[in-house]
Amino acid sequence: MSSEIRPGVIVFADGTFFEGRLFGAAPQGQGAFGEAVFQTAMSGYQEILTDPSYSGQIVCFTYPSFGNYGINKEDFESKKAWLSGVVVRDLCEIPSNFRSTQTVAEFLTEQNISGITGVDTRAVVRKIREGGAQTAGIFAGTGKDAARFAALVAAEPSMDGKNLVRGFDGVDANAFVVTYLQAQNIAKETLTPIAVLDFGIKYNILRELIQQGFYPQVFAGDTPLAEQGFDANKFQGFFFSNGPGDPAVVTNGVANIRDLTATGKPCLGICLGHQMLALALGAKTYKLKFGHHGGNQPVKADYRKQVIITSQNHGFAVDEASLKAVTESDARFEVNANDLSAEGFRILGGRYKILSVQYHPEAAPGPRDAAIVFSEFRGLF
Questions:
Q1: Best exposed site among 13, 108, 250, 299 by fewest CB in 10 Å?
Q2: What are the tens digits of pLDDT across the range 320-348?
Q3: What is the CB neighbour count within 10 angstroms for residue 147?
Q4: What is the span of the domain harbouring residue 26?
Q5: Do residues 333 and 200 share a domain?
Q6: pLDDT digits (tens, 9 = 90+) for 121-172
Q7: Would residue 362 show up in a list of annotated catalytic residues for this protein?
Q8: What is the Cα–Cα distance from 241 to 269, expressed in whole angstroms?
Q9: Which residues form the Carbamoyl-phosphate synthase small subunit N-terminal domain (predicted)?
Q10: Residue 24 labelled as part of a binding site
């Protein structure tokens, strides 16, 4: 247990601040900056910390106890942590779990990520709900320096217009596939080959695809496929992954998706991949006020009798009116039962075989209601 007390503060551009104690790495340079969002899941913080979709964000966890089962690499969703900072109410420094190999504070120190504990997270959530997702900064210091820190935050760019997927090249994902197949004693020759565009893919998506009988071969999502020696004829279908940032500026990725959907082969898009698939068809996207980040988002579809509870993590959404204007008459749609924002669509007639969902059917963490999406994708082959 660490006895060191390091005063810290999270500050918003308007000068609003919340004091606490730092843990993990010390804020680098002038501070740790990112888009402040809140995450409502009660568990699964390891998966959240290592989900590439949180790149560039400071995540405020609403569940008060954080770190109580430590860290183990089996539950990672990528090779590292991607977020910019962590805000919690009560950090557990003595975890209790037989699989734990280190504390959250030790892990964040290794990953060079700053956290702050002892914060009134309910007040932080109210700030984000009322003002929307907004840039914030974690600093070493106290509220007496809030005005100076706020000026630094105000100078930081917003998430709008940010392309955060350029660094995802498929190398780590392909290495994971090889390791997983070996561990499960699965021969790739027995599986159906599909191409995956990597915009920040999670490991559990790859597991789910393999469990459905697919052999996922992963390519850089935002690099023109022609520059990667890509041959669409080698694959029976295509998958477009989750990822961080603004989908409208990932122009190479959208062009790649447009070319692959035009083949008429089965396609599945998840989260950012869903948004970019809609853009490839001619629809529009927009920024949500504070996004959906949690494991309890209800989704209803015009082709499904029951509402499903889903895991979600996104700050942008598809404009459903623009999507309906460009899709064919046999397209079907899903909406969020809370705010009626677009949650998915499918086009299974005519030129396309497309499934596309805003939520995360692989969960990790979250409920498993939506896992049926992977078997529905399998059914298109």
A1: 13
A2: 999 999 997 789 999 999 999 999 999 99
A3: 11
A4: 7-154
A5: yes
A6: 999 999 999 999 999 999 999 999 999 999 999 999 988 999 999 999 999 9
A7: yes
A8: 6
A9: 6-139
A10: no
53 annotated as belonging to a binding site for a ligand: yes
For residue 12, what is the domain's CATH number?
3.50.30.20
- Percentage helix, strand, coil, to 5, in the chain? 30, 30, 40
Q: Structural domain tally of the chain?
A: 2
Q: CA angle, corner 295, sides to 122 and 34, nearest 5?
A: 55
CA distance 152 to 12: 9
Residue in 271, 292, 320, 334 annotated catalytic: 271
Residue 159 lies in a domain: no
In a domain, 166, yes or no: no
Strand ranges (E), the chain: 7-12, 17-24, 32-39, 57-61, 65-66, 85-87, 90-91, 114-117, 134-140, 192-198, 214-220, 238-240, 266-270, 285-301, 308-318, 332-336, 342-347, 353-357
The encoded tokens of residue 29 equal 């340079």
Is 366 annotated among the ligand-binding residues?
A: no
Residue tagged active-site, from 274, 293, 314, 360: 360
Whole-prediction pTM: 0.95
Query: Would you state the structure tokens that stand for residue 136, as one six-digit string?
Result: 């914030």
211 has binding-site annotation: no
For residues 283 and 291, what is the distance between their CA atoms, to the nearest angstrom? 19
Check if 360 is active-site.
Answer: yes
CA distance 139 to 146: 9
275 labelled ligand-binding: yes
